[in-house]
Amino acid sequence: MRKKIYIADTGGTIGMRPGVRGYEPSPGFLGAQMAKMEILKSPLMPGYHIHEYDPPMDSSNMSPSAWFDIAEDIAAHHDDYDGFLVIHGTDTMAYTASALSLMLEGLTKPVILTGGQIPLCEVRNDSRENLITAMLLAVREEIHEVCLFFNNRLLRGNRSTKVNAGSFDAFDSPNFPPLGTTGIDIEINTSLLLARPDVSAPPLRVQRLNDSPVAVLRLFPGISAAVVKNLLAPPIKGLVLETYGAGNAPDNDMALMAVFKAATDRGVVIVNCTQCLKGRVRMGAYATGSALREAGVISGFDMTPEAALAKMFFLFSTRTDIHEIRSLMQVSLKGELTE
Ligand code: ASP
User: Fold this and answer.
1) Ligand 1 center to residue 216 CA distance, Å?
2) Model confidence over 59-80: pLDDT tens digits?
3) Strands 4-11 and 83-87
4) Which of 86, 92, 117, 211 is the most exposed place for a label (fewest CB within 10 A)?
5) In total, how many domains does the chain have?
6) Predicted TM-score (pTM) of this structure
7) Is 13 a catalytic residue?
């Protein structure tokens, strides 16, 4: 029997049209174009139902409550479809993929996010290929996790990051190999995929995310302790700190280190993620990294800042014990880090 997928069309460039202020979402436009694509009627393609969000949006406008709407939408249709495609803008796709990977607990079917750098309506575009192949991937029975498909690569959603604003090769998964590649053949590396939840496990559950007061801060030479102190003042609960290299910070700035220490003593969770695209945090490698550890900062290992941020939203929405949040932050929940 022909398999069928549910397409959650949240918006993004793929379905946009040119307007006077630049590309903008256009209600009904993606669905109308897909309806005209003969290739999508091929018996080799899965059947699909498309649900366009109201309004379809540029992904710069995404939020935790929008992530929740997507997760709920998938859960509501989970039993009726073989897989799920989330049409999404590229700008914050890695954040949404990271969040969905944590919010959808007990997922047994593929959830694939995709989009395009050039809209489907343009003569030259990447959206067509991304769409068609992502639809085929969304019915692969061996996938039980949230993935991002772009430019011939299937990436673990919570390992992905947008690396290029001007190329079709917009995404990378710097610290984890692609789960699959699509050339002449569609090749999936099944040894890398997350295992299917046990049959005795509870059915799919969706975790709502609260609007927790969390932030991301990128260190830079000359950063002011006074400014950071303001950021770390209540009500903040968590901070993803993007540090230098293997997780280092200016340990000669005693005022700054004292600000970090005072915040962690108060219970603020500060997670150390490197500014480098590749590699991992090793806070004992340099004295400048040890200083952060002494200030109570915990390691984000090789997590992307997107995954670390989504994980903070998730943990602050599901836990109250700071010790538990700190310890879960440092273990892999859905393949987002290598311990
Ligand atoms: N600004 C667009 C978005 O994120 C970019 C894209 O989709 O490529 O919705």
Assistant:
1) 21
2) 999 999 999 999 999 999 999 9
3) parallel
4) 211
5) 2
6) 0.97
7) yes
